[in-house]
Amino acid sequence: MIEKGSAFLLKIGDGQATPAFATVAGLRTTQLSINGEAVVVTNKDSGGWRQLLSGAGIRSVSVSGAGVFTGSASEGRMRGNALSGTIDDYRLSFEGGETLTGRFLVTRLDYSGDFNGERAYTVSLESSGQVVTA
């Protein structure tokens, strides 16, 4: 099933113990990367083939997005997190109803604008701890 890119949303928590999530307004593009670092356990009994240890290594999720600045509360919270280096709750939601939820650090936030155009931003986030699917 083909899903709409407009339904791939980055959301930020409200800071509560059980967070409510709001979409980061003005987001036009979103990208997700799930990364895994392999632990190689190859030995002389491997017959010359590399062997990896299942479930080991470091897993992480990277998220990036770009959009038009709207001055929303969710953008302001994200900007505050970037300035303070605060790890916060974020959620990615997809058209089919699936979600990825976890704690993330804003590692980059860039703003740009043309004289006759809108102010835009790009953001990059890196996971801190487990990211869960639902």
Mean pLDDT: 91
> How many angstroms separate the termini?
18 Å
| Helix/strand class | mainly beta
Helix and strand element order: EEEEHEEEE
The fraction of residues assigned to DSSP E strands is over 45%
User: What overall form do the CA principal axes indicate?
Assistant: elongated
- The oligomeric state of the chains shown is single chain
Radius of gyration: 18 Å
Main sheet specs = 8 strands, antiparallel
- The poorly predicted ranges are none
Query: What is the count of β-strands?
Result: 8
Number of helices: 1
Helical content class: under 10%
Kindly describe this structure.
The chain has one helix spanning 73-84; strands at residues 9-13, 21-23, 27-36, 59-68, 87-93, 99-113, 119-127, 132-133. It is mostly beta strands and 134 residues long. Strands 1, 2, 3, 4, 5, 6, 7 and 8 form an 8-stranded antiparallel beta sheet that branches. β5 and β6 form a beta hairpin. The two termini are 18 Å apart.
Would you summarize the structure shown here?
This protein has 134 residues and is mainly beta. It is built from 1 helix and 8 strands, in the order ββββαββββ.
Topology:
Layout: E1 9-13, E2 21-23, E3 27-36, E4 59-68, H1 73-84, E5 87-93, E6 99-113, E7 119-127, E8 132-133
Give a quick set of tags describing it:
single chain, 134 residues, mainly beta, 8-stranded antiparallel beta sheet, 8 strands
